[in-house]
Amino acid sequence: MKTSPVVRRALALACLALAVGGSAETLTVVSWGGSYEQASRKAILEPFSRETGIEIRVEVYNGGLAQVRAQVETGNVYWDIVDLEMADAARGCDEGLLEYVDIDDLAPAPDGTPAAEDFFEGTVTDCGGGLLFYSTIYAYNADSFPGDKPSTIDDFFDLDRFPGRRGMRRAPQVNLEFALLADGVPVEEVYDTLGTAAGMSRAFRKLDTIKDDIVWWEAGAQPPQMLADREVVMSTAYNGRIFNAQIVENQPFVVIWDGQVLDSGTMGIVAETPNLEIARQFVRYATRSEVQAAVGRYISYSPARHSGTELISTHLATGVDMKQHMPTSPQNLKRVLYNDWEWWSDHADDVNERFSAWLAR
Length: 361
What we know:
- The protein is 40% helix and 19% strand.
- By secondary structure, the chain is α/β, with parallel strands linked by helices.
- Helix 2 packs antiparallel against helix 13 and helix 4 crosses helix 15.
């Protein structure tokens, strides 16, 4: 039986599309770059593509909702999935910038426990469940301190005992919390204190004490490089980035867990994406317990699900026991501040404005 010219042309175009693009379906996933992105590729993106045949295109950003908001408001949505900090996820969900995700549609735990019962408290919004826990800590290069060594969050602000430049993210989040902790505010009172005018001023006054010695960073890959180059003697950083530099690159870095700010991230689906159904398929895959645990074989970020935590094992390349490097391991939680993403979701605009004004002074 002969096929019509129209059908032959359609088949030819389909074959050409597959030859050029490698897949009839493509998702654009926005990530954070560096060692975290590489871990995500190996543990989530590439396995998902192999399982589904869907091509993943990766873009990199430095966080926030500005680009997501611009795409949704102009109707020009070209991102599908964005790896978000929890405060941004909650806010983006409230603003209608992200698609609703029913937690009951996500995969149950391996033992059948429903997803809603398996995710840790505080890792679920109306737009999905959490992906991973990560922590903002500070680290130092051991070669910079042959004698007395930093050991507490207070030491980060002590220029007399530990002179030298400090690296900090160019954002108020975590910096203000670290400042209050170093100024003597108990962990359980940090956000109540930040919620007052006097407490906010107190945090900025503490930052004033080291402002002239701060080198600002924006991308998570920068702190390890700054420490390696001796551009700074200590820097705030994401714990996984420092782990990678320590274990894979053999850098003499030391993590200070005292005062760590523990946070979680999630995969948000950009509102009005033309690829909604396969985006939902991706989120369901990425939030599976075993997939979250797989990330922990490449970088020290821990699952946002109870059942995933039980699956943490060793670093794939080196065989290092990953449990001791996870921010949620008991020995690292002695003085932890759990990031109040609801507080930041409510106050981000005002605090960002004040922080920008403080930077400009």
